[in-house]
Amino acid sequence: MNPLPGWRAAFRIARRDAVRAKGRSALVVAMIALPVLGVTAADLTYRSALPTKAEELTADLGSADARYRDQGLGPVRLEQMPDANLWGTYEDSPDLLPQAERKSVDVPATFPEGSRYLTERSVPASVTTRHGIADARITELRIGDPLLRGRIELTDGAFPKAADEIAATEAFIEASGLSVGDRVTVRGPQQHYTLVGAVELPAELKQKSLFALPGAVIAPWKKSSDDDKEILPPQADKLEWLVQGPPGEGVTWPDVLAANEKGVVVASRQVVLDPPPDSEIPMAAQMGDFGDGSAELAAAAVTVAAMAVLEIVLLAGPAFAVGARRSRRQLGLVGSCGGSRGQVRAVVLAGGAVLGGVGAVAGVGAGFGLTTLFRPMIEDFTGRRFGELTVQPWEILGIALLGLVTGVLAALAPAIVAGRQSVLESLSGRRGTRRSSRVLPVVGVIALAAGVAVAVYGGISGDTTFVAGGSVLAELGVLGCIPVIVGLLGRLGRRLPLTPRIALRDAARNRGRTAPAVAAVMAAVAGSVAIATYTSSSSAEEEYRHQPNLTSGVAALSTTDTAGKAELPRARAAVEQNLPVSGDRADIGRVWAGSDCFVYYEEENGCGTLELVKPTGKAHSCPLKGEGARELAPRLSAEEHKRLMNSPACMDENFTMTSFNIDSNKIVVGDAALLTSYVKLDDPAAAKALAEGTPVLLNSSYAKNGEVTVKAAHIYNDRDRKNRDRHPGKAVTTTEQLKVYVAPDRYAATPSIRMVMPQRTADRLGLYSEEIGSVYPLDSEPTDAERQAVDAAIKLTGDNTYVMTANSMRQGDDAAILLILALFAGVVTLGAAAITTGLSKADAEADLTTLSAVGAPPGVRRSLSGFQCLVVALTGVLLGTAAGLVPAVALRLTDLRAALEAMREDPMQSAYTPIVMPWETIGLLALVVPVLAGLLAAGLTSSRLTLARRAG
């Protein structure tokens, strides 16, 4: 028997039914089209924004054939991979000569005969802008040459043609406030240039760079001083060559090997696009297969696609179910005319195929349209121009097929139900007696328990595959339990008012449309809560481990060397004028012994030392260091380990940076103002001690019986003329016992300072001291504009001072992630609740008519819709929150395992791995979103109903 005529009729009936029920059809098409639109746009954007090898080469070479690089090793034989990213010397190469003895390489001599080339070299510089001073990289390159087309494009003005002309990227021009025709000064050599053009780097739209002709910047910079190393920044890039090979030949692999023989590495377009076989690559034998992570990427893509299909099926399935019920008389007529159960199912499945196909086509078309429309915005966001709109036909076809299959899958369950319905029930409009499956909840509970166990095992063992698999299994288990949970909701409304009681009972009675919507909300919320919980927990861990460079709420002005002392008055004025300073400044000084420790000599002990000697004994030693520490650390709880880590004895055992230009002893010269503004020690006794010449010790583990031991090694180097003249004599080591004021233990964690020494004490001990900066209390964290302004003002005072604030933890990205997750889950929750409410109204029209007929107030219809929406949203959010904790906790167990292994190697490493609930996100989802969904549903529902004749 040929099945095609039956299916042809089924599709014809489905098409007519879709046209007849335009609202419901549009809803299903939109639900299928939206994910297809998103995936299509993402695929087009990814494929277009991801540069091909040819586009990467154009971004680096322009239209040139190759880039030649002298690696600075001299004419030593090298070997390289075809892409030039990996290179090295041959194993049988002789030892490299010292830097001073290496001969230069004549790189142009290695070019193929008949080649043409451009030279390129960059240098970091500080240049003037309309706002002040900005750091930028200046590249000496003849960018007007046709060899650079595709890499650098002119957008305004002209290319530089003279030595006093310069061009800039649009990103630099926008940030600096300059425009074509303005004057730009390169600080250092004080060379002046005219900005003649604006250019764009298609592969790096956000790059802030300047371009000048070869020899226009670096050569004058060198000539401006007799000491080139002092003037030219050491970060200046080496000279490189962009080469265009002989016409029709390019730069071949033999040309690359010939250059390698002379110590030159070559990135050739021809070689990269058409690499030679491994047998011709000397370096290939040393390289292994590192993998590219494509398997993991494919697995992630499959998982995302599966979740998208599940979301659509869960949301679209109830719409098909309601549509089948509203068309049950039509389906009954099919059966009464001799149609089999299979043909009844075919009608419903054909409806899914029709709407799925329309949704897929609409989604793909809208994806192309939106990608084209928002292409400039996407390019600005990604920071690179699309070479072209890349379309992979098979991927687009697969995405469209995914939409079609999703529509059919969403109609599968309603089709099975419709096929089982008797003809009499269909024609009479009665639904018959339906019983919930008793097997599904049992299977769901077993799957939930097994999934939690597998996820926990994966977390403990450190296998993220088990974590992912167990989490999905647990979520599916909760999915299986949802019908029973929804059924129990009806019993909760016994003591509630009329409308919430009806809403709960309606949800329990119509589990076919309520449970999938609850499941869709649960799936979206579970993923959001899992990521939000893991993100919040990781942020708390990072904040715990974070070591600030300065005390929060202050700005520190410091000098880079002794020459900066003369710049301090003007630098202080710049800080006070441009930052939100809230109080008086506190000056700070460094102290040292012997030779000036700003100067480090090559010979051993070329600089004097000054240190606080920690007393011996158990009371002064850290339990997490030395013998027995590896056995002790794993037995400690996180709180106990944290307490020990923050104790004075252990505080200095790990490396801690010093933000001021002081030695690792962290002894500074200061007065009571430094205590109150920076240390935050508001203690009259401490201030009095400093005034009387008694140092204030912040770390009590260095004190014994109220005294500290200060050991000074006065070493005078012959080149240290200043100190030699001030304190002639032989090297000597002195040890002093100083009475100190010991601050409470909590001040041991003060960044960069261990002891504050009065000036009179430093003089009495024969130590050198020098003012190095100031500390300012701030009203608020400086804005970006204030930072730029103060940096510009500081640079105007000289190059020997700088200002900094505390490197506080930046929570902006995490907060944005949590907000996006909450918005995503909230939108899905609102959508699922709205869909369910709309279906409830369509499905229960007869019940609403009956309510109105028996005298129910008009507002009952409105409030009933609100409570129906609230029930779905709130139930899904609560279940999703519980399900989302499973993967989050399991992943944190994985992190805990790694932290414990690190602690066994180094007991000073903390195993603190907290699980922090994102209460703001959960509160938004559990309280705000359901209430908002209920209010919107109630507000958009008409309270008046035109009574119609009841059937029966």
Descriptive labels:
eight-stranded mixed beta sheet; 3 domains; ten-stranded mixed beta sheet; single chain; alpha+beta; 952 residues; 14% strand; globular
Give the helices and strands, then pairings:
Layout: H1 4-20, H2 22-49, H3 53-61, E1 66-70, E2 78-80, E3 87-89, E4 116-128, E5 133-140, E6 153-157, E7 165-169, H4 170-176, E8 183-186, E9 191-200, E10 209-212, H5 218-223, H6 228-231, E11 240-244, H7 253-261, E12 264-268, H8 269-273, H9 294-326, H10 328-336, H11 341-373, H12 375-382, H13 393-420, H14 423-428, H15 439-461, H16 464-489, H17 498-509, H18 511-545, E13 554-559, H19 568-578, E14 586-592, E15 609-613, H20 629-632, H21 638-645, H22 648-651, E16 667-669, H23 672-679, H24 684-691, E17 696-697, E18 707-714, H25 721-726, E19 732-739, E20 741-742, E21 755-757, H26 759-764, E22 768-777, H27 784-797, E23 801-805, H28 812-843, H29 845-853, H30 858-905, H31 919-939
Parallel strand pairs: 5-10, 7-9, 16-21, 17-20
Antiparallel strand pairs: 1-11, 1-12, 2-3, 4-5, 4-11, 6-9, 7-10, 8-9, 13-22, 13-23, 14-16, 14-22, 15-18, 17-21, 18-19
Helix pairs in contact: 1-11, 2-9, 2-11, 2-13, 9-13, 9-18, 9-28, 10-11, 11-13, 15-16, 15-30, 16-17, 16-18, 16-30, 17-18, 17-30, 18-28, 18-30, 19-27, 28-30, 28-31, 30-31
